[in-house]
Design goal:
By secondary structure, the protein is of the alpha+beta class. It has helices spanning 26-41, 126-139, 150-165, 172-181, and strands at 46-48, 58-61, 71-78, 85-90, 100-105, 107-113, 119-125. It has one domain (12-181): Peptide deformylase (Peptide Deformylase), CATH 3.90.45.10. The longest helix is centred in the first third of the chain and has 16 residues, at 26-41. Bound molecules: nickel (II) ion.
Length: 182
């Protein structure tokens, strides 16, 4: 496994639409390993393959406090998004330094292949549902600030470019779990 460079805005690579994985082989599993290692090192709670420059439909997520519950989704599809909406303050490893409230369905059912190539379908809610939808947007070339107004998006991208010149590491996951406890 290896830590890869994370592509950030305003790179046009992030606008690419990812293609389906045809065969889940050792190369795919190796990429998933790199994605997990890159996500943990950042640190982040989710990463799509395109964020390390690979335009394939793969995402990895770990929202656990202990960072020991990795989830890998290959060719994920949302089957049943709920009508009820939740709002989360989202961030993205590709848009460092920016945090904005984004509204999305609060539950969803996801069909995907796991790292053994086995077809699975599971229901998700809360932060996990938000992160899955955020990461799946990356597969369509969409970053979370694309959900904002044109003006707010422009400001966010400028803010991120400025932040990238002088980055400060911040662990929002620890903050999220601490806020939940208090
Ligand atoms: Ni992201």
């Amino acid at each position: 496994m290896a830590i890869k460079e994370i592509i950030t805005v305003p790179s046009s690579i992030l606008k690419k639409i990812s293609s389906s994985v045809e065969v889940v082989d050792e190369e795919i599993r190796s990429t998933l390993g790199d994605m997990l290692e890159t996500m943990y090192a950042a640190p982040g709670i989710g990463l799509a393959a395109i964020q390390i420059g690979i335009p394939k439909r793969m995402i990895v997520i770990d929202v656990s406090e202990e960072r020991n519950e990795p989830h890998c989704f290959i060719n994920p599809e949302i089957m049943k998004p709920s009508k009820t909406i939740a709002s989360f303050e989202e961030g993205c490893l590709s848009v460092p330094g920016v945090w904005e409230e984004i509204e999305r369905p609060d539950k969803c059912s996801v069909k995907y292949l796991n790292r053994d190539g086995k077809e699975c379908e599971k229901n998700y809610s809360g932060l996990m549902a938000t992160v899955i939808q955020h990461e799946m947007d990356h597969l369509e070339g969409i970053v979370f600030v694309d959900h904002l107004s044109r003006l707010k998006k422009g400001i966010s991208i400028k803010k991120s470019i400025k932040f990238q010149k002088n980055p400060v590491k911040e662990d929002r996951l620890a903050k999220y779990h601490n806020d939940k406890k208090s």
